[in-house]
Amino acid sequence: MDFFYIFFQVIKMLVIFLLMVTMVPLLVWVERRGSAFIQNRLGPNRVGPLGLLQLLADAVKFFFKEEFVPKNGYKTIFYLAPIVALIPGAIAFGAIPLGIPLDIGAFNAFGQTWGPYNLGFQSFELGIGVVFVLAVASLGGYSLLLAGWGSGNKYSMMGALRACAQMISYELALGLSLVGILLIYGTFSFNDIVNMQEGPLNFSIGQKDIVIGFLPNWGIFFQPLGAILFFVATFAETNRAPFDLPEAEAELVAGFHTEYGGLKMLLFFIGEYGHMMVASALMTTLFFGSYHIPFVTPDGLLSFLNSFMGAGFAKWIQFLIFHISFMLKVIFFLWVFVWVRWTVPRFRYDQLMDLGWKKMLPWALFNTVVTAVAMLLLA
Amino acid sequence: MTDLLSFFQVSLNHYLALGLILFTLGLAGVFIRKNLIVILMCLELMLNAVNLIFVAFSHYQGIPLGQVYVFFIMTVAAAEAGVGLAIAISIYKRFGTIKMDLLTALKG
Amino acid sequence: MDLASVFFWILSIPILVGAICVVFSKNPLFSALFLVLSMVGLGALYFQLGAHFISAVQIAVYAGAVMVLFVMVLMLFDRKAVESEEAAVIKNSQFKWLLVSVFLGLMLGLIFSQSFIAGPDTILPEATSVVSTKELGNLLYFKNILSFEILGLLLLVIAVGVVSLSRIEGGSDD
Predict the structure, then answer these.
(1) Are A142 and C68 an interchain contact pair (Cβ–Cβ within 8 Å)?
(2) Is residue B4 part of a domain?
(3) What is the mean pLDDT of residues A119-143?
């Protein structure tokens, strides 16, 4: 715990938070252009190349909107809700490793040698990583409830109540769908889970080790049902279509954020996209090999890079390549979120509850039991 | 000065005192408040205080069994909250209020 | 002062402020929100005490599920029924306050007169007391399996009971 260690940790947290926040305008752009592409329109294309600067214009617009509190609302709660919306996504995202750990060799500063540091690319390393992320993500319901109550408006209230009932219902299926994969990995720590997914697909039945060379050792091949259930449940957790009942326009105007505008609305946006990013990052980390690239090992890549550039430079390039590999997978899942939103129609409320309680929960339980029995018999 | 420093140096007693203050606040809430929901919340606060004392003892004595009991208490507390809120809702449906001092009739 | 002390004193502020505001807020919704603050603070304190899994469960179960339920139920009620003028009640109950403070004083005196740890030199080292999830699971599923099963049964009974309770028809006879 010396000065530079703390300094690097703080820098790391700032970088990861900024990474998350700057992804949001890009995602808004992807959402708008993507929906336009799916609906055979053009979308925003005037400001800057491909309309990329539209976000900047939007941000300026958001900043200069009038501050407004509804007459029947509670001022404190009305202002508190968007701030609370930002917290769970930001904290949960920090616990997930976004790339290969970076080694910083010993160096001299202030007339002293500062020891080598090994910095994992995550804000904080926790032994209980998966449980922590689920726990923090479960706090997301408060911002919706506060927004609904603070607005003093029936539509907002109905939206908030719906959102919360939905989140609580799907949290069960979400948690249970992960039990199978956690049984297989036998750990909650993200770093251990990531390290286990390196190399070709291999497992052992009894005393025999089986290696399937043409597939990577990813969680999806062990738990396909768990992965599907988890991904569907995250759609409900993030209140995205086809489960966006809380903001069903035809019934509730805009649900819990009917009364919000300007910067406060932007904070809700960041919260929602933060939730999506956490969901995609979890999906990538648990089921799709995190930052590992199929058929490429970190050491192999490093020695390949070393063959035509300096050792110090090669380390950074390797770090960058693995981070890009992680982000590409995350972006793919984010695109699936957008894709589904603009192609699948909204569920009715009773259908939503039926799906959660009568279909996903039993299937998740079935998956857990089958995994446990299979592990007992094949061990 | 050393007295003050040794007071700030945390030991088991500090955790016990914090737990006790939380428990007393919960107790006071149960005695004084009239709103059924707030009384239930104060009960949760008291259970939390007990949990804190369990965890503190388990940490300072090095016995992890205390945490297992915390686990059990949490489950019971969640169940208690569910039943309490269901009762609160049915009382509200029946009498139109959840203030305990107005619910004096023995026969509903 | 070591790091544990710093964490304790910093975390005790939100915990105590939250707990005090639970009792004294006029609006039950604020009570619930302050209770969430208190519970998250306690969760952080559990982490500091080496109970990592318990700390995550505290946040997921208490702050994430139980308190969301409380807030939801408060929203289902009529606003006027929920927001009551209770300040007078809090002021006019001197006898209850006396009782509670006597209890607090006696217990605090007990704690600090008869220290449960003989002296500062017998405090256990920090590293030994981080309980891994595996250890906790072994304790839960091998040594306490009966209690665990009974709890499962209790939860089932509660689930059925809550459903039947909330299906009672409203309205009064008269």
Answers:
(1) yes
(2) no
(3) 84
Choose the closest CB to C29 out of A149, A165, A188: A149
C162: domain CATH number is 1.20.120.1200
- Indicate which of C48, C71, C138 best probes the interface with A, i.e. most A CBs within 10 Å of its own CB: C71
pLDDT digits (tens, 9 = 90+) for A283-331: 999 888 888 888 877 777 778 877 877 777 788 888 888 888 888 899 8
Would you say residue C173 lies in a domain?
no
Q: Give chain C's domain count.
A: 1
Residue A29 in contact with residue A39, Cβ under 8 Å? no
B/C interface, count of CB pairs below 8 Å: 232
Q: Is the pLDDT of residue A273 over 70?
A: yes
Domain containing B54 equals 11-102
User: Would residue B43 count as lying in a domain?
Assistant: yes
Q: Which domain holds residue C151?
A: 3-166
In this structure, the strands spanning A112-114 and A200-205 are unpaired
Q: What is the pLDDT of residues A54-65, one digit of tens each?
A: 878 887 888 887
Q: What is the DSSP string of C89-102?
A: HHHT-HHHHHHHHH
- Which of A134, A168, A188 lies at the smallest CB-CB distance from C68? A168
- Chain A: nearest CA to C55, how far in angstroms? 9
Is residue C172 situated within a structural domain? no
Question: CA–CA separation, C93 vs A13, rounded Å?
Answer: 49
| Smallest CA–CA distance from B80 into chain C, residue | C158
